[in-house]
Amino acid sequence: MYQRRTGRIANAIGRRWWGSAAKVPRAIRTSCPRCRRHTEHEVSLYKAGRRRALAEGERRHEWRKKGYGGQKYPRQRRFAKTTKKQTLKLKCKVCGYIIHREGIRLSKLVIG
Ligand SMILES: [Zn+2]
């Protein structure tokens, strides 16, 4: 099946399917939920933040792992995928509201 969700990079850049490199414009005109109309959005790449050792999920995970029968799920040892799904961060130029646009698998993403 192709494109169950709306608002993917493929939509943003008018591409149908994953492939080699994808070019994304530096600015996209799209709907802003706060302004409730189409505005210019600044495009950047989403990067996961640093893991905090004292975050609730992290503490729960530690707690569940300790004791007899430790590891709770199989550890990923070999990865089948060579690419990651890229998420775009769109920042509204009018109000500064940031929306994420879930991406597709890309080997290379070029912004600009
Ligand atoms: Zn806005």
What does this structure look like?
- There is one protein chain.
- The protein has helices at 9-12, 56-65, and strands at 21-24, 27-32, 37-45, 84-85, 88-92, 98-101, 105-106, 108-111.
- By secondary structure, it is mainly beta.
- The protein is built from two helices and eight strands; from the N terminus they run αβββαβββββ.
- The protein has a domain at 1-47 and 82-112: Nuclear Transport Factor 2, Chain: A, CATH 3.10.450.
- A hairpin with a 5-residue loop joins strand 5 and strand 6 (98-101).
- The protein is elongated and about 55 Å long.
- Strands 2-3-5-6 form a four-stranded antiparallel beta sheet, with no helix packed on it.
- Residues 1-6 have low confidence and may be disordered.
- The structure holds zinc ion.
- Zinc ion (ZN) is lined by residues 32, 34-35, 39, 92, 94-95, 97.
The CATH architecture of the domain at 1-47 and 82-112 comes to Roll
Helicity level, as a percent range?
10-25%
Major pleated sheet: 4 strands, antiparallel
Cofactors and ligands: zinc ion
Taking Cα atoms only, what radius of gyration do you get, to the nearest Å? 18 Å
The average pLDDT score comes to 83
Unreliable stretches (pLDDT < 50, length at least 5) are: 1-6
Shape: elongated
Question: What does the oligomeric state look like here?
Answer: single chain
- End-to-end Cα distance: 30 Å
> Could you name the CATH class of the domain at 1-47 and 82-112?
Alpha Beta
* SS element count, helices: 2
CATH level-3 fold name of the domain at 1-47 and 82-112 = Nuclear Transport Factor 2, Chain: A
Strand content: 25-35%
| Helix-and-strand structural type | mainly beta
Strand order of the largest sheet: 2-3-5-6
Count all strands and give the number: 8
